[in-house]
Amino acid sequence: MSEQNAKIIQAEKIIKQYADMIYRIAVNNLKNTADADDIFQDVCLTLLTKNAPLFDDVHIKNWLIRVTINKCKNFSKSHWQNKTEALDLSRENPNETQNLIPELVYSLPQKYRNIVYLYYYEEYTIAEIAEILKENKNTINSRLQRARKKLKEILEEGDNL
């Protein structure tokens, strides 16, 4: 088996293992499933074409998270994105209460959304999130606290309506 074929097979395994995570991060950042599909494909292509740590299980998940977040940031800055209006995900299933929490997280500023997602959904520690996002541990902790406070305020406002 050639080295290129081995790389493709390994990349396929990685994509199957982390596909849901990549997609959830993209939706979390972009609030749009169609754009998240595009980012997912772009991350998969990057995995195949760039020098990703394919054989290092410790680093591949962090690498995928970082690449996905960066691609979402770049997409959000693009001229096309600035000239279009995102679809409101809350209207896809308006009667389902299970959509309440993701909607609340989507309402947070992006710098908080990624931290909340990584902490609660991917179960990373604050130190691990700081390493992935290349931020100071205290910064991540502060942002997580602020995100919790904002979510609490949103929930309390909803109860008062």
Describe, in plain words, how this protein is organized in 3D.
Mean pLDDT is 82; it is low at 87-98. The protein has helices at residues 3-30, 33-49, 57-77, 79-82, 100-106, 110-121, 126-133, 137-160. It is 75% helix and 0% strand. The protein has 161 residues and is mainly alpha-helical. The protein has 8 helices and no strands. The protein folds into 2 domains: 1-85, Rna Polymerase Sigma Factor, Chain: A; 95-161, Winged helix-like DNA-binding domain superfamily/Winged helix DNA-binding domain (Arc Repressor Mutant, subunit A, Orthogonal Bundle), CATH 1.10.10.10. The protein starts with a helix and ends with a helix. It is elongated.
Topology overview:
Blueprint: H1 3-30, H2 33-49, H3 57-77, H4 79-82, H5 100-106, H6 110-121, H7 126-133, H8 137-160
Supply the key terms.
elongated; mainly alpha; 161 residues; 2 domains; Arc Repressor Mutant, subunit A
